[in-house]
Amino acid sequence: MSRALPSLVLVPGAWHKPAHLQPLVDELDGIDTRTVALPSTGDDPAHLGDMYGDAAAIAEAVAAVDGPTVVLAHSYGGIPTTQALSGARNVRRIIYLAAFVLDVGESLFSVSGGSPMGWAAAHRQCGGDGYLDVPDPVEVFYGDVDAVTADRAVRQLGYLSYAAGRQVLTEAAWKTVPSTYIICEEDRALPPAVQERFARHADEVHRMGTSHSPFLSRPADLAGLVADVLAQV
């Protein structure tokens, strides 16, 4: 009799919501899969959470799983995942998908030259941090996604809190939790050369010839790769 696979918790990237990862979930048939909604992303720019709130949401989702768990984090999602999981006893592996893998004391902005990425627009607010959006998300995120799917994905995007970009890690889970890195070789959001640098923290590296969002452009291929990783845990 085959061994049951671990549960899988998905963490979307900045601006993205669980709905964006649904095509991947649909391909992960038979695998217990849950997706976290990050508080730092939302439709109301005046009421957004932050990176530490994201980390708390991830920790809560993992704690709700009864049994071995793997966490897949995409893009910015790698930051709060790394913050959240140092003490998570049931997490067997982290899969970083074209993700930021930072160390203690680093933040999204600190590894991006001290400010938001050049393709993101910052909107500062009096009395608060403000928010970020992306003027051309198709170019940045969805270069190999079909037009209908890309249009739907753009309409589902939210705002990202500015605070989430400046808050620094106080924990680094990749130092104690085994990890896999998936490099997206045609990525226009997080350059492959930068991903290669982050991948040095992982003990296993895979590559996909995709843009930043293989969960939309090649969900079946990504699901197959993820299932293979789960089977080895």
TrEMBL record:
<dbReference type="InterPro" id="IPR029058">
    <property type="entry name" value="AB_hydrolase_fold"/>
</dbReference>
<dbReference type="InterPro" id="IPR000073">
    <property type="entry name" value="AB_hydrolase_1"/>
</dbReference>
<dbReference type="InterPro" id="IPR052897">
    <property type="entry name" value="Sec-Metab_Biosynth_Hydrolase"/>
</dbReference>
<dbReference type="Pfam" id="PF12697">
    <property type="entry name" value="Abhydrolase_6"/>
</dbReference>
<protein>
    <recommendedName>
        <fullName>AB hydrolase-1 domain-containing protein</fullName>
    </recommendedName>
</protein>
<feature type="domain" description="AB hydrolase-1">
    <location>
        <begin position="8"/>
        <end position="223"/>
    </location>
</feature>
<dbReference type="GO" id="GO:0003824">
    <property type="term" value="F:catalytic activity"/>
</dbReference>
